[in-house]
Amino acid sequence: MADATSGESHGGSLGTRLNWLRAAVLGANDGIVSTAGLIVGVAGATGDRSSLLLAGLAGLLAGSMSMAAGEYVSVSTQRDSERAALTVERQELLEAPEAELRELAGLLAQRGLSEEVAMAAAEQLTQRDALRAHARLELGMDPDQLTNPWHAAGASFLAFTVGALLPLLAMVLPPADARLAVTVGSVLAALVLTGWGSARLGAAPPGRAVVRNVTGGALAMAVTYATGALLNAAGV
């Protein structure tokens, strides 16, 4: 049973790493699309490099801070729920150890063990660390690896910032007559990569994800550019 629970732990760790990686890819994607939409819209109204840089930096900072704050709140809530579930489980082990033992044996039996082997394994796991056994088999978590909101916030901040830097630099570095084309081309290429990456990490067909990603980004840039151009034409 030690091998079984170890394998489950390794599988959970792999799933956690994949979730973090998927979140990083999606965070970078958000940074690309939102910042590209913002500065392309400004570019539709003005070609001034300083204005474009200011708008891009403002969007980058606002977006990254918003992503970090939102992720911190979300993961903090998740961690509070995990802690509450562990507290309840700990109390149940104190108040009804026999019932918890039978429950653990039932969980093991659902995984294909015979009733006799499941009960013997449950007794061994309970003697070793009852709370850990119930946490992993019943709650699907590792008591020593609860989600960390600060890690999540930092990862979201970094992912969004990295994504946002691409359209920002593509807009302010090239010559004025090429910056829009360079930005649009760079953004669409990056969206192909993030769409493909998110699909691969989610074990989904990459073609549809790439098309959706690129279409959404292109539409965002087209709408904001048209809006900026109309405002400029109206003298706003």
Supply the key terms.
single chain; mainly alpha; disordered N terminus
In a nutshell, what does this entry contain?
Helix content is 87%, strand content 0%. It has helices at residues 2-45, 49-95, 97-110, 115-139, 149-172, 179-201, 206-233.
Structure explained in plain terms:
This protein is mainly α. It has one domain (2-233). It has seven helices and no strands.
- Name the structural class: mainly alpha
Distance between the termini: 71 Å
- Please give the count of helices: 7
Q: Indicate the multimeric state.
A: single chain
What is the global morphology?
elongated
**What is the total number of structural domains?**
1
Spatial extent as radius of gyration: 25 Å
Low-confidence stretches: 1-11
> Which range best describes the helical content: under 10%, 10-25%, 25-40%, 40-55%, 55-70% or over 70%?
over 70%
Largest sheet: none
SSE order, one letter for each helix or strand: HHHHHHH
Describe the secondary structure blueprint for this structure:
Blueprint: H1 2-45, H2 49-95, H3 97-110, H4 115-139, H5 149-172, H6 179-201, H7 206-233
Helix pairs in contact: 1-2, 1-4, 1-5, 1-6, 1-7, 2-3, 2-4, 2-5, 3-4, 5-6, 6-7
